[in-house]
Design brief:
Layout: H1 17-28, E1 69-73, H2 77-86, E2 93-96, E3 100-106, E4 112-118
Parallel strand pairs: 1-4
Antiparallel strand pairs: 2-3, 3-4
Length: 122
Amino acid sequence: MAKITGLGGVFYVAEDPAATREWYREKLGIDGEYGPQLSWSEETGDKPYSLISHFSDDKYIKPGKGGFMINLRVDDLDGFVEVLKDRDVEILDSVDEGYGKFAWILDPNGVKIELWEQVEAP
């Protein structure tokens, strides 16, 4: 039977797509032919997964705009946060939940990005 195999992408309108793509390339180190691209074949975690999560309000998304957030997996959150600080990216907050570590930033369009290091398999 046909089935969903993973997250294919996140698509949204940006006032200046070229500047947004440059920010993702310079600040987060991701780029690709059609925009920032992530190769699942590079994921080394134990049972990696993507999540589509639904909320009844936008408290978790704030201060991001647009009613959605992008979650990006990282292999070393603490190290990546230091890289972002060196690149003058403001870290909104961070937390270690035991099963995973999280930090939050905003892209140049005000879209909230959650950085996630999966610590335990689901």
